[in-house]
Automatic annotation (TrEMBL):
Pfam families: S-methyl_trans. The keyword Electron transport does not apply. GO terms for molecular function: S-adenosylmethionine-homocysteine S-methyltransferase activity; zinc ion binding. SUPFAM superfamilies: Homocysteine S-methyltransferase (SSF82282). Binds 1 zinc ion per subunit. PANTHER family: HOMOCYSTEINE S-METHYLTRANSFERASE-LIKE ISOFORM 1, ZGC:172121. Zn(2+) binds at residues 240, 327-328. This is Hcy-binding domain-containing protein. Keywords: Metal-binding, Methyltransferase, Transferase, Zinc. GO terms for biological process: methionine biosynthetic process; methylation; S-methylmethionine cycle. Residues 6-342 form the Hcy-binding domain. The keyword Kinase does not apply. InterPro entries: BHMT-like, HCY_dom, HCY_dom_sf, Hcy_S-methyltransferase. The lineage of its organism: Eukaryota, Viridiplantae, Streptophyta, Embryophyta, Tracheophyta.
Length: 345
C-alpha cells in the first residue's frame, strides 16, 4: 500500500483525528532530569534511558496515538563530541526508536490484559524525531532559522544524511522532521528522502513566531508546498509555535496542500536562546500586550493553561487539523485534555 493511503486509512479508522504526544524534554524535566546541556533530551539516553521510556508510557496512557522519540537533539557529531565512538553514537540513535517501541509494546500488552478487544486497541505509532541543524547547534538558531552565509543545501544534507539512514534502519512507523526553521532545511529533507530511498513515511513540521512566515522569514505556504510535494510525506504542519497562531496557519497550509495537517503547538512561551530558558512571550495569547494586563491574568510559568489549550482544539479540528498534540511546555495532562476533548466531539 502506498504510504499516503496507509496513513489516510489509519486516520479514517480513528475517526479522522490522531492525538500526538506532548513535550518530551519538558516532561523529562518534570520527572527530575537535568537536561540543561547541548544534547538536551538526548542526554537522558546516556544518563537515564528508563526515564525516556517512562515519558513515552505516560503519554500513551494520556491518550497519545503517536509518540515521538528522544532523537530530536541526538546527533552523531553531538555524541562524538562527548567522547562516544561512531559505533556507540549510532547505537544510541537506534536506541531512541527501541525505547519508544518497547514502551508502546508494553502499553499494548497492558491494554490486552485489560481485555480490550484487538479491534478497539488504541493505535500507537512510533515517530522518530529529527531536529534541525539549529537544534544541534544548541544556540537558539532553531528559532531564528539563520544559519549564516556559509550554509549550503549540500552541507545541510551531509549533516542529516547518516542520522536519517540510521534512524530509518531502526524501523520506526514514521519519521518526524520537527521544528524546521527555514525552507533550505526542508529542501534538504526532501532531497535526502529521495536520494537515500528512505522507505519510512514522514511528516515535516515548521515553526513560526509571527503566524505568517516560518521563523527564518521564509513564506510558510512555500515551505508547506515544498514539504507536501514529497511522496514520502504523509502529513505537513506546525510544531513548537504559540497556540494563537495555529488557526491561521492551518488555513494557509490548506491553500497549498490536501495532505493531512498536523499541529502540535507549544504552550505559548518563547525560548530565550541566550539565557537558555522559556520566557513568557511579549504578547498574551489573545494578542494583547502583556504589560497592559493585570498580573493575575497571566500564567507566568506555564503560558497557556491546559484548559485554554483545549478550548482551541475544536477550532483547530474545524479548520482542518487531522493530528493534534503539544510541543514544549505541554505535558501528559495537556495530552489527556486534548484526547478527552476530541472524544467528546
Ligand atoms: C524544540 S521542539 C522539541 C520537540 C521534541 N519532540 C520534544 O518534545 O522534546
Ligand atoms: Zn517544542
Amino acid at each position: 500500500m502506498r504510504k499516503e493511503e496507509w496513513f489516510q486509512n489509519l486516520l479514517k479508522q480513528s475517526g479522522g483525528c490522531l492525538v500526538v504526544d506532548g513535550g518530551l524534554a519538558t516532561h523529562l524535566e518534570h520527572l527530575g532530569a537535568n537536561i540543561n546541556d547541548p544534547l538536551w533530551s538526548a542526554l537522558c539516553l546516556i544518563k537515564n534511558p528508563e526515564l525516556v521510556r517512562q515519558v513515552h508510557r505516560e503519554y500513551l496512557e494520556a491518550g497519545a496515538h503517536i509518540i515521538i522519540t528522544a532523537s530530536y537533539q541526538a546527533t552523531i557529531p553531538g555524541f562524538c563530541s562527548r567522547g562516544l565512538s561512531l559505533a556507540e553514537s549510532e547505537e544510541l540513535l537506534r536506541r531512541t526508536v527501541l525505547l519508544a517501541v518497547e514502551a508502546r509494546d508494553a502499553f499494548r500488552k497492558s491494554q490486552q490484559e485489560k481485555d480490550i478487544d484487538d479491534k478497539n486497541l488504541q493505535p500507537a505509532l512510533v515517530a522518530a524525531s529529527i531536529g534541525s541543524y539549529g537544534a544541534y547547534l544548541a544556540d537558539g538558531s532553531e528559532y531564528s532559522g539563520i544559519y549564516g552565509p556559509e550554509m549550503t543545501l549540500e552541507k545541510l544534507k551531509d549533516f542529516h544524511r547518516r542520522r536519517l539512514q540510521v534512524v530509518a534502519e531502526a524501523k520506526p512507523d514514521l519519521i518526524a522532521f520537527e521544528t524546521t526553521p527555514n525552507k533550505i532545511e526542508a529542501q534538504a529533507y526532501v532531497d535526502l528522502l529521495r536520494e537515500e530511498a528512505i522507505d519510512v513515511p514522514v511528516w515535516i513540521t515548521f515553526n513560526s513566531k509571527d503566524g505568517v512566515n516560518v521563523v527564518s522569514g521564509d513564506p510558510f505556504e512555500e515551505c508547506i508546498g515544498l514539504a507536501a510535494s514529497c511522496p514520502s510525506v504523509v502529513a505537513v504542519g506546525i510544531n513548537c509555535t504559540p497556540p494563537r497562531f495555529i488557526h491561521g496557519l492551518i488555513l494557509n497550509a490548506k491553500k497549498v496542500t490536501t495532505k493531512p495537517i498536523i499541529i502540535y503547538p507549544n504552550s505559548g512561551e518563547m525560548w530565550d536562546g541566550e539565557k537558555k530558558e522559556w520566557v513568557v512571550s511579549h504578547f498574551c495569547d489573545n494578542g494583547v500586550h502583556i504589560q497592559d494586563l493585570p498580573f493575575s491574568f497571566l500564567h507566568p510559568s506555564t503560558g497557556v493553561s491546559d484548559t485554554d489549550f483545549v478550548s482551541y482544539v475544536h477550532k483547530w479540528r474545524e479548520s482542518g487539523a487531522s493530528l493534534i498534540g503539544g510541543c514544549c511546555r505541554t505535558t501528559p495532562k495537556t495530552i489527556r485534555a486534548i484526547s478527552e476533548a476530541l472524544k467528546r466531539r
